[in-house]
Amino acid sequence: MNTWAVPGYTESLELGSGASGRVVLAVHEETGVPVAVKYLSEALRTRPGFVREFRAEARLLGGLESPYVTGLYEYVESPDGAAIVMELVDGVSLRALLSGQGPLDPEAALVLLKGSLLGLDDAHRIGVVHRDYKPANVLVVPDGTSKLVDFGIAVDAGTKVGVAGTPAYMAPEQWTGAPASPAADVYAATATFFECLTGHKPYPGDNLAQLALQHVDSPVPAEEVPESVRDLVRRGLAKDPRERPAHAAAFVTELEAVAGAAYGPGWEERGRGRLAALVALLPLLLPSSRDTPRTTTDTARTVLGPEPGLGRWRSWRPSRPGMLVAGAAVLLAAILSYGVQHPPGADPQEAAQALATTSARPGVTPGGPADGTAPAHSSAPPPTSTASTGMSPSDPATAATGESTTSTAAATTTPSAPETTTPAATATDATPTTTAPTSPAPPAVKDVAVSSFRQTGPTTASATIDITTDGTGPISVTVSWSTSDTGVQLAGTPDGASQTFERSGATQYTLTVDHTFQGTGCYWTVQATTTPASADGGASQQLLTRGCGLR
Q1: Is the bond preceding residue 474 a cis peptide, omega within 30 degrees?
Q2: Which of 207, 248, 319, 362 could bridge 315 with an S-S bond, Cβ 3.0-4.6 Å?
Q3: Could you please report the per-residue DSSP string of 58-109?
Q4: Contact 466, 509 (CB under 8 A)
């Protein structure tokens, strides 16, 4: 078993575990603030595809500012392990709540659905599809509010990544490997809402083949839910994604209209009170009730809901500064592939901490003592408490459900978070540069790939480009952009000047490059070529802009 632990934190107990890793309760040593640390399993850490997805989850959380989604504090990667340090949600999973207390009344179910839909909406607004909404990934806190967790298989909207999700909640189009869409999240949220009301899943298939047929062909079992919400269930579970609300925000609007008409203006307050009462019946499932290390630090007190006056602590939550996580993850990817050399006698864990920890500490920006900034060291999370495991909790009530995420995709396109950089470009060199007395000969470029290309604003986009060579000699990478109204890449019009980056000293490089488009075409294209030329001739990727896609 891997015993590596994130430097700067004291761990107390395991909150949950699964095939992909484990989540532990820990305390930030400098402040005493409790956090949840999600570790990638030792078996998966040696498989590059899973490591990329783990980094992508951290990058996504760093760019997702939402009170309805568990927050990221920092991402840490070293030669000995990888971990995501998250907000500790002091709550009970919806799966445990349903297992222990049975079906919910309509008002409580509507409140729970609305809260997690608002979390989905914040993801949908930045072009991200969760793909794994289910009771185990919704946490209910003692004040009756809820949070959405585990973005482990989330992707950019429109990405085609194969069949992935939890079978009991997968939309018909997910079974066929169609491109990811917010409408699939709406379907999964409605399936969960159905289970909240009835105590069972919409379709009772005993195997994958049967479940697939039921989700694709069987009638929506709306007659099993209260009449007041049947239309809501029919809309959310529609077989054709075009007949569902297009995204979470549209579904919230419909939900509020239905709830207000059926249950009156006090439905939300009553539903939240009912959820709080149910959580109070399961106190031993709250992380705060377990053997948490005690501290005298006032700022480490658990806060069970949004509270005014948090002052500087609220600013610790990463928003755009949290985008540094993306750069750190990319940097570490190549450092690890190239090999980190520890000086004789050096502590590998200390070296990993110096190289691998990116924090969103309030008032701290990258720099040195000369500009009055602190070194990049693990920093204090805010006093918001949450238990976001993203894995099957150790609690038998949750583990017994048999829910597991299925994925047959060969690879996942990792969402790239927006960068606060100049419009020209941001290039992150993913490997160390070595100096030799003489310049090595240019290597052969074996592969060039655009691993991510996403729209980050009305006129801006960000692309991540991976290059593999057979030697450490110098290469140059040229990135160019074009727009088109036809969707045919060769017919595109060049957009702005191309950018060229010089690299040497490694065999793998990753560049993250931003661009502000001047053209008005609905399709944007990025193309990467190298000198020496790559064996595959370079790489390109195209996307349909959100503005055109919503027409």
Answers
A1: no
A2: 362
A3: HHHHHH---TTBPPEEEEEEETTEEEEEEEEE--EEHHHHHHHH-PPPHHHH
A4: yes
**Mean pLDDT estimate for the chain:** 73
Phi-psi region of 199 (alpha: psi -120 to 50; beta: other; left: phi over 0): left
Same domain for 164 and 191, yes or no, is: yes
Query: Which DSSP letter does residue 363 get?
Result: T
Q: Which tokens is 302 given?
A: 């658990």
Q: Which residue has the tokens 């239905």?
A: 258
Tell me the sheet residues that pair with 140: 92, 146
Average pLDDT over residues 118-122: 91
Nearest CA to 481 among 496, 503, 465?
Answer: 496
Q: Tell me how far apart the alpha carbons of residues 205 and 493 are, in angstroms, rounded to a whole number.
A: 51
What's the residue count for the chain?
A: 551
Do 191 and 166 have their domain in common? yes
In a domain, 429, yes or no: no
The dihedral region occupied by 309, where left means phi > 0, alpha psi between -120 and 50, and beta the remainder, is left
**For 384, which DSSP code?**
B
Distance CA 394, CA 452 (A): 35
Over residues 73-104, the pLDDT tens digits come to 888 888 888 999 988 888 888 998 998 888 99
Give the C-alpha distances (Å, rounded to integers) separating 156 from 97, 343, 417, 450: 31, 41, 10, 14
Q: Which of 260, 283, 306 is the last residue of a domain?
A: 283
Instruction: Lowest mean pLDDT of 19-33, 66-80, 205-219, 422-436, name the range.
Output: 422-436
Residue written as token pair 């690299």:
503
Tokens 């450092």, located at residue: 335
- Shared-domain flag, residues 201 and 273: yes
Determine the structural domain holding residue 486 and report its residue range.
445-549
Query: How sure is the predictor about 292, in pLDDT bands with cuts at 50, 70 and 90?
Result: very low
Strand partners, 455: 461
- How many Cβ atoms are within 10 Å of 25's Cβ, its own excluded? 24
- Confidence band for 519, pLDDT divided at 50, 70 and 90: confident
Confidence (pTM): 0.56
Give the span between the Cα atoms of 544 and 546, in whole angstroms.
Answer: 7
For the chain, how many structural domains are there in total?
3
333-348 pLDDT, tens digit per residue, is 333 333 333 333 333 3
**Which runs of consecutive H residues, i.e. helices, occur in 135-266?**
172-175, 182-198, 208-217, 230-236, 248-263
Backbone angles phi, psi at 292, to 5 degrees: -85, 135
Q: Kindly state the average pLDDT of the residues 284-299.
A: 51
Nearest residue to 431 via CA among 535, 335, 325, 301:
335
Q: Max CA-CA distance within the chain?
A: 79
Which residues are annotated as catalytic?
Answer: 132
Region label for 421, one of left (φ > 0), alpha (ψ between -120 and 50) or beta (otherwise): beta
